[in-house]
Specification:
14% of the residues lie in helices and 40% in strands. The protein contains twelve helices and 40 strands. Tetramer of two A chains (F13A1) and two B (F13B) chains.
Length: 733
């Protein structure tokens, strides 16, 4: 009898997997406390070996871990840390730990079927050094029977609640600590960690978009803007567990939960109840029977806790409720997020980038045939992340929308769609960019059906949709307009060019005989960016090749943007429009000079630029569009050594650097380190005048022979990511 019940408990396997899918953080597996290597000899007593007596997690809000990881606000007794950053624990043994004879390691597990290659089973051996952004542990302190450990988690680690075991090796098997919920560790996204996909470089923005637990919703309409506060409550009791439950509910494979793109995509579906019994049931018909009217909610906490306990959709929500709860979810997990309002928001049913309003004979809108609509306002969210799945330049703010409007890949969800891609009309990049582009940019086309059945265009309104896009100010309660993040100036040349680019990428071919899009095949456009060293002027050359016998004129626009090395745009530093005359059968080149004064003040760490060039051939109305990223050359540090390089003997290292900028560098910090050669050393220089060279000499005594590396870096406000390195061969004495 016991055998059959045991069999029934096993989940059904399908033919494609060796293991069932591992998509619940809640479920656990049994972990053996004694894992024998074979037969255990008589007289084996586990108590004879190193044994764990207690584990201290330093998990109180005032203790080191929650303070350093910005998780002290969470109302949760367990340890909460952010990935890619070290945290501390202490293990007490039954006797002093002796590294020569004792061996122990840590194991972090998540879900029911932990596997090392999926990142759901993580064994961590104790090592001498921690590598940034990779799993590891090292002993920082030993006293009596206790060992203090510093543990580094991977910067791409799964987000969720992990179980911790300490394993000790004995000659006959592995002894593990028993299951102890008090040592469970939550690992969240880390916007403070440069290697994390959600890294945000501005502390004030991190405080607003990750740590602020209240916000403002702008509503009303374009002529009468109203605002209200919303409590996100991402740190309240049980909210973190409720947010993790949402990913279980969405059946997101645990191995995908380190990826903010995947998390946003599934969350945008599970926030609404359509097709998956998600969190909030929407209602727009003014009848809210057996539920709370959307306008009555003041925050997200009640909604999330009710859903977490009942597992049934909470009634009712409209766009700002979906957006408010979504914002709580994102901030709670550590993804920077903000709530956006778009006034006069288009709802384009067939994503043809225009709203088709059909008029009847009297000129009124025919409600039976008109399927598109314009909302007074619509709220969605932006989440901040890199987009390694897209070309460089499209990271940064991404639109995600939990309000059910249209299906995407068969479910009611929307995003993440790059705001930068939407602005420039590059709507070919996933996910759902054409839909969002239409929400802020659509032209309203008024059509009338003539007697013979053809459609006659009566009027086109190009300015109504997406007149104002706003969010809450950073650190204050005012309104910040971000319309220009999404679109160029209404009626400007660039705006039309972006629209025509979007049409080129986004229009669905309705039928074969329909006027499907014909690109301009007889003119080519490309551009080259001159290689340049940081601090100098350089030029961008745009070349048109007219392969036809016609004379054409082109209206062209160049946009230069400063981007993070991850491809996230910071801001536009160069706008340049020009007209070009293209003679038959010839090439024409146009230079745009980029002055150092235009980019230096905004330059980011990695000195990366991203250029868009868009042109319209005026005679045909056809669009040519292209974009590329480019990086300035950053001058390197030079490292030299003098004297014999022998372990145990003094040697000398010099670091040199010449200031390439047309300005004095101030408060420059140099660092030099070389594992096995010298401990990290720091030196500050108050000023380095332009064109002058600094020389820093250091004496050191290398202690380990072999091939070693010296690494130096220079940092100041005006210049970052200046590095130098040198391999050195240290001889045996």
């Amino acid at each position: 009898m016991s055998e059959t019940t045991d069999k029934e408990k096993k989940p059904p396997l399908n033919g494609r997997r060796a293991l069932p899918s591992n998509n619940s953080n809640e479920e656990e597996n049994e972990v053996p406390e004694m894992e024998a290597f074979g037969l255990i000899p008589r007289g084996f007593n586990p108590k004879d070996y190193l044994r764990v007596v207690d584990i201290h997690m330093f998990k109180e809000p005032h203790e080191i871990n929650k303070q350093q990881h910005h998780t002290d606000k969470y109302y949760n007794p367990k340890l909460i840390v952010r990935r890619g950053q070290a945290f501390q624990i202490q293990v007490d043994f039954n006797r002093p730990y002796s590294p020569e004879t004792d061996q122990f390691w840590l194991e972090y597990l998540i879900g029911r079927y932990p596997q090392q290659n999926k990142g759901t089973y993580i064994p961590i051996l104790v090592r001498d050094v921690l590598k940034p952004g990779e799993w590891g542990a090292k002993i920082t302190h030993k006293e009596n029977n206790s060992v203090r450990l510093s543990i580094m988690s991977s910067a791409t680690c799964i987000i969720g609640k992990f179980r911790l075991y300490v394993a000790v090796l004995t000659p006959f098997g592995i002894l593990r600590t028993h299951r102890n919920a008090a040592t469970d560790t939550y690992i969240l996204f880390n916007p403070w960690c440069q290697q994390d996909a959600v890294y945000l470089d501005d502390e004030k923005e991190r405080e607003e978009y990750v740590l602020n637990d209240v916000g403002i919703v702008f509503h009303g309409n374009i002529n009468d803007i109203k605002l209200r506060s919303w409590s996100y409550g991402q740190f309240e009791e049980n909210i973190l567990d409720a947010c993790l439950f949402l990913m279980d509910k969405a059946e997101l494979e645990l191995s995908g939960r380190g990826n903010p793109i995947k998390i946003c995509r599934v969350a945008s579906a599970v926030i609404n109840s359509r097709d998956d019994n998600g969190v909030i049931a929407g209602s727009w018909d003014n009848t809210y029977t057996n539920g709370v009217p959307p306008s009555a909610w003041t925050g997200s906490v009640d909604i999330l806790l009710e859903y977490y306990s009942s597992k049934q959709p909470v009634r009712y929500g409209q766009c700002w409720v979906f957006a408010g709860v979504f914002n709580t979810f994102l901030r709670c997990l550590g993804i920077p997020a903000r709530l956006i309002t778009n006034y006069s928001s288009a709802h384009d049913n067939n994503a043809n980038l225009q709203l088709d309003f059909f008029l009847d004979d009297e000129g009124k809108v025919d409600t039976t045939t008109t399927k598109d609509s314009v909302w007074n306002y619509h709220c969605w969210n932006e989440a901040w992340m890199t987009r390694p799945d897209l070309p460089v330049g499209f990271g940064g703010w991404q639109v995600v929308d939990g309000t059910p409007q249209e299906t995407s890949d068969g479910m009611y969800r929307c995003g993440p769609a790059s705001v930068q891609a939407i602005k420039h009309g590059h709507v070919c990049f996933q996910f759902d960019a054409p839909f969002v582009y239409a929400e802020v940019n659509s032209d309203i086309v008024y059509l009338r059906r003539a007697k013979n059945g053809t459609q006659v265009i009566e009027n086109i309104d190009t300015t109504h949709v997406g007149q104002l896009i706003v969010t809450k100010e950073v650190g204050r309660d005012g309104m910040m307009e971000i319309t220009e993040e999404y679109k160029f100036q209404e009626g400007s040349e660039e705006e039309r060019l972006a629209l025509e680019t979007a049409v080129m990428y986004g229009v669905k071919k309705q039928t074969i005989q329909d006027t499907s899009y014909q690109p301009q095949t007889d003119v080519d456009m490309e551009f080259q960016v001159q290689k340049a060293v940081l601090g100098s002027d350089f030029k961008v050359t745009i070349t048109f090749r007219n392969k036809s016998r016609n004379i054409y004129t082109a209206t062209a626009y160049l946009s230069g943007n400063i981007v993070f090395y991850t491809g996230v745009t910071k801001n536009e530093f160069k706008k340049h429009s020009f007209n070009a005359k293209l003679e038959p059968y010839s090439s024409s080149a146009f230079d745009v000079v980029i002055k150092s004064s235009e980019y230096l003040s905004d330059l980011l760490d990695q000195a990366s630029f991203h250029f868009f060039v868009t042109a319209r051939i005026n005679e045909t109305g056809k669009i040519l569009a292209t974009q590329k990223a480019t990086v300035l050359e950053i001058p390197a540090l030079r490292i030299k050594t003098q004297g014999a390089m022998v372990a145990g003997k003094e040697m000398s290292v010099t670091v040199e650097f010449t200031n390439p900028l047309k300005q004095t560098l101030e408060n420059v910090v140099l660092r030099l380190e070389g594992p096995g050669v010298l401990r990290t050393m720091k030196k500050e220089f108050r000023q380095i005048p332009m064109n002058s060279t600094l020389i820093w000499e250091v004496k050191c005594i290398p202690n380990r022979p072999g091939l070693r590396k010296l690494i130096a870096s220079l940092n100041c406000d005006a210049l970052r990511h200046v590095y130098g390195e040198l391999n050195v061969q240290i001889q045996k004495p």
